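user: can you give me the structure for this one chain? tokens are fine.
assistant: on it. calling the predictor now.
[tool input]
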Amino acid sequence: MLIAVDIGNTNIVMGFLDEGKIVGSYRLTTKVEHTSDEYGMMITQFLSLSGYEPDDVDDVIVASVVPKVMHSFRSSLIKFLDIDPMVVGPGVKTGMNVRIDNPSTLGADCLADCAGAYYVYGGPVLVIDFGTATTFNYVDERGTISAGLITTGIRTAAAALWGNTAQLPEVEITRPDSIIATNTKDAMQAGLYYNFLGGVERTIQQFRDEIGEDFKVVATGGLASVFRDDTDLIDVVDPDLIFKGMDVIYEKNAD
């Protein structure tokens, strides 16, 4: 069994893959303060919940955008699983050709997302990840990542809204019943939702206008499913895309 780990700014998400099939996924809060023992206990508990033991794990692959977490998390894998993980980064084959100005600046999570989208759904494809930041990355028919866009995530924008206004409350990020809001909570939910959705649709359309050819749109990330039913511009919502991408990357480097 392979464990694929996505260490993001807000959450660490783990996927258990048995012969390429995702048999379990778990999410925990990213905290720099966690020790290797704390991470190790969580990993072994998640394995137990899925019916596995540490000895069942053949290897681990990690994609991280939080360097400060890597020491304790990597140490936990060595201590509790006796595995030094493969880390997505320089020197690791991905099967993707990164043609942006500074390829090393492309996040490991975006790289894994693009690999998953390209090898599972084909290219050309626009890959959208709804995370702490919202990222758009374009992959052409040859597997070349040639352009990207980064903007705020909807939760990040929402936190700025209620964090910088004295009388606006914290609200759940969800699809509102109507845009015709008659109270503060509904007004905030409708404003956040439709403003963000409109921005996503406009961005997709601008990619189409400037690239000049059709492409698939594959979305992933914690809030991708919130927008699934309100737009025809997203073709596929795949919450496990990064795990599929890391599985592809692992297989290209397993020898």
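assistant: here you go. Residues 97-246 form a domain with the Nucleotidyltransferase; domain 5 fold (CATH 3.30.420.40). Helices lie at 36-49, 67-81, 108-121, 154-163, 184-211, 241-253.
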